[in-house]
Fold this sequence. Notes:
By secondary structure, the chain is of the alpha+beta class. Strands 1, 4, 5, 6, 7, 8, 9, 10 and 11 form a nine-stranded mixed β-sheet that branches. The longest helix has 17 residues, at 204-220.
Amino acid sequence: MTKHKKLKKWVDECAKMCQPDKIIWLNGSEEEKVILEQQACDTGEIIRLNQELLPGCLYHRTAPNDVARTEDLTFICTSKKDDAGPNNNWMLPKEAYHRAREIFTGSMRGRTMYVIPFSMGPVGSPFSKVGVEITDSIYVVLNMRIMTRIGTKVLEYLGKTGAFTKCLHSKAQLDITKRLILHFPEDNAIWSVGSGYGGNVLLGKKCLSLRIASHLARQENWLAEHMLIMGVEEPGGKIDYIAAAFPSACGKTNLAMLIPPEGLKIKGYKIWTVGDDIAWMRVDTDGALWAVNPESGFFGVAPGTNSKTNPNMMEAIKKNTIYTNVLLKMDGTVWWEEGDGPVPAEGIDWMGRPWKPGMKDEKGNIIKGAHANSRFTVPAKQCPSISYRLEHHHGVPISAIVFGGRRAHLAPLVYESFNWQHGVYVGATMASERTAAQFGKQGEVRRDPMAMFPFCGYNMADYFGHWLKMGEKIEKKPKIFHVNWFRVDEEGKFLWPGYGENLRVLEWILSRCRGEVEAQKTPIGYVPRPQDIDLNGLNLTNKIMEKLVAVNKNEWLEELKGHQQFFEQFGERMPKAIWDEYEALKQRLESK
Ligand code: GTP
Ligand code: SPV
Ligand code: MN
């Protein structure tokens, strides 16, 4: 156990409230994993997949109403409402504790309470943060084992007095009317109850590494961001690193492990994956911005992942992977829509019902075998493109920051901001069509600054201010870009092939960072001259390329109204520099 008095006291208090039958402290060993897996399989919480075809792989279904993060039930609990800002649901800490306590009380009766000491980032690195998650879900324990570094080594590092985030979780009754995801930045605590889904319950992920960490980052002068981190290696061996923020289910995982397309093969690029979801970034002594991925696993979207779109991931998930809400095949393997292999003739769907292709529900809609937000949890080290720098304390130096979203119209394939302040504006005005990763109407365009709207643990106006301030601290500033892989033609078809082909755009981005290529100036930023994107081996006409980088002033003037409306809700707290950028953009768009 531990000699840490505060930790012991907190675990005692939680046990008193939740009333578990027993308490187990996780040590992180392989033996422990074997026992837990067996227990979860015995109760049916988890199904062991075909061990010959998928060694070490497990299968789990969540409750049908518990398949994505529930942002409506997610709260930032600060003593002042304005500190949470209009971007967050807010509750007074006192009220939040009170409401949650009612649901937590007795919630672990007849169950075991697991205590998981975990580290985000390599154990002992000065950039890492320690958390302790208490949970009554073996599924959570098994996922945390993959996504974070857990066990005795973390307790040893904590010693008698080390600081940690208190993370309390109970499935309780998995009742959506008794579900709350509460963050207490002032207490360095998270309480999550009534859910068993990923981002709601793997508390090291969005809750700690983004919502709580963003709050700490502001105080400690660093950045906690919803970003992938990847390295692009040139034949000479030089690696440039890119950090990119796209909203949930908009392509971070896929981009982070892309494989160079055929047409670019002769150029000899190699891609290295550092992270696919979260980046913690600091200014180092060299004046550059350095990034670490605090996670040790990937919690990736299954549908759409196949050997063409993401061969690295397909290789990674062949073993030791937990599959959630995908289709279970009769041979004990798994499948999902737009996955590999033929559509199976039959299977058990994500809700546990017999499934055949083409089946329809009462409204006549096709029933999918896998939920659109079904996922796999896989150790990062199993990914063939994983960077050797994953365990490096200082991480990697960032040359370019890329923002992006899912926009059927408006946003060009890529554009470059004029400078840091303008880049912050570009990030602050990001918008994207809603995906299955969050509850709500799919396809609706919503503003999602820096892909952090659901994850910023404080008032977003202050967050923009923090980004502006960081710009003053970074001597060697990364250039800031915006990409959109999702622009469509008149028939609604994607204009850009995406996936591996996105390297062609990254190539332009890095050339711009090195000052090697010209660009066209438009009111919104620099876009590539069509001839500067290498289209070798791609069947893409110049005309389409022109469409892809076109900037329509009238559409942008319309878009500007959305910027204004969004910013106005932050009132006086909004940094003046953001409004200055707004005015400057407006003038550029209105001038001939
Ligand atoms: P989170 O894990 O929710 O944060 O998502 P993510 O940003 O990592 O998204 P991911 O890479 O898993 O992609 C989500 C969906 O977008 C998948 O269905 C992909 O197939 C699809 N997608 C990814 N990249 C591209 C692309 O370049 N073009 C197109 N058209 N689709 C893409
Ligand atoms: C996301 O929704 O952005 C994810 C999955 O990465 S979750 O862990 O549920 O947040
Ligand atoms: Mn994410």
